[in-house]
């Protein structure tokens, strides 16, 4: 019977995780941590639905990798959970953090099996250390360490979260606050949550990221428009006209952005920066490239190299090529040899030959950030 929905919470900002990569976007082999977790859960149980709660920008990327349901999260864990619960139509819901890399299959099965027994099923561990409350030693047998994932009765959990503005540290404390019966089951020492960089050494289920180079290709075309400044690769070009565009029309940077996004598998420039948005009107494309670069870094990608061909009858670009190379190298934190700029004409053929506009083709390679080398 498909009576359980899985909610994966991943809207937090990984602020305790001091790497340039968001923890859910560390790569293991050829899959990010969050996608590995989804496949592990799918192998354990046939959930009616898997709901992934994350930030809008993460969802733009994640939705290219997985066809589960995505919900934009809120500013707190509880708000994100409420939003996730709004699309749950099963009597039970299992909630997990998205940066939990290693799942203990038997523990998850134990939690799900007990779903009819209480309002909440919680895996727990007995502490092995001696514990004090202020200056009084505690009886270890009476203390439990609470783990996740926890299973809840959907209506009771919704009621618990709607009944108060108090922030609960986990689902079982919200449920017990409204009188829900909490059932404990044996947890697992292998069920680690990824919170800080130091946790990585304990994640035996994570593999080293694949070293395959990812290749992307980008093309862009813009017609000339008089009265505008012309920019190519962020360099101002002396010209009586610029490019007709919503942004500054830097056709070369647009092709580079599409090549980078192509290599990452997360779409194209129009999805990220829609030309219907007033935020991007007349924006310098160098700003867009900086934004794409930091986004790719947060998703665990590093740029390998870029090769660009600008096809233009006019203006002549020879004297700008070096500046273009250094400019892009600076934005992308690369040594200049990893950026190549080529300029060619179309031998007077077609609209380029008639001097009506410029086309640019770009190729980029990306690599996964190797967190094992840290
Ligand atoms: Mg364009």
User: CATH homologous superfamily of the largest domain?
Assistant: Spore Coat Polysaccharide Biosynthesis Protein SpsA, Chain A
Q: How many DSSP H or I helices?
A: 11
Helix/strand-derived category reads alpha/beta
Apparent shape = elongated
- Termini, distance in Å? 45 Å
Supply the number of structural domains.
2
Query: Helices and strands, in N-to-C order?
Result: EEEHEHEHEHEEEEEHHEEEEEHHHEHEHE
Explained architecture:
The chain has 374 residues and is an alpha/beta fold. The protein is 27% helix and 26% strand. The protein is built from eleven helices and 19 strands. Strands 1, 4, 5, 6, 7, 10, 11 and 12 form an eight-stranded mixed sheet that branches. Strands 16-13-19-17-18 form a five-stranded mixed sheet. The longest helix has 14 residues. Magnesium ion binds next to strand 13 and helix 7.
Write the layout of secondary structure elements.
Elements: E1 4-10, E2 27-28, E3 31-32, H1 33-44, E4 49-54, H2 56-62, E5 69-72, H3 77-85, E6 92-97, H4 105-113, E7 120-125, E8 132-133, E9 136-137, E10 145-146, E11 150-153, H5 154-162, H6 171-177, E12 182-186, E13 214-226, E14 230-232, E15 235-237, E16 241-243, H7 251-264, H8 269-272, H9 285-298, E17 301-311, H10 321-331, E18 339-344, H11 350-353, E19 357-368
Parallel strand pairs: 1-4, 1-6, 4-5, 7-12, 17-18
Antiparallel strand pairs: 2-3, 6-11, 7-10, 7-11, 8-9, 13-16, 13-19, 14-15, 17-19
Helix pairs in contact: 5-6, 7-9
Can you summarize this structure?
This protein has helices spanning 33-44, 56-62, 77-85, 105-113, 154-162, 171-177, 251-264, 269-272, 285-298, 321-331, 350-353; strands spanning 4-10, 27-28, 31-32, 49-54, 69-72, 92-97, 120-125, 132-133, 136-137, 145-146, 150-153, 182-186, 214-226, 230-232, 235-237, 241-243, 301-311, 339-344, 357-368. With 374 residues, it is an alpha/beta fold.
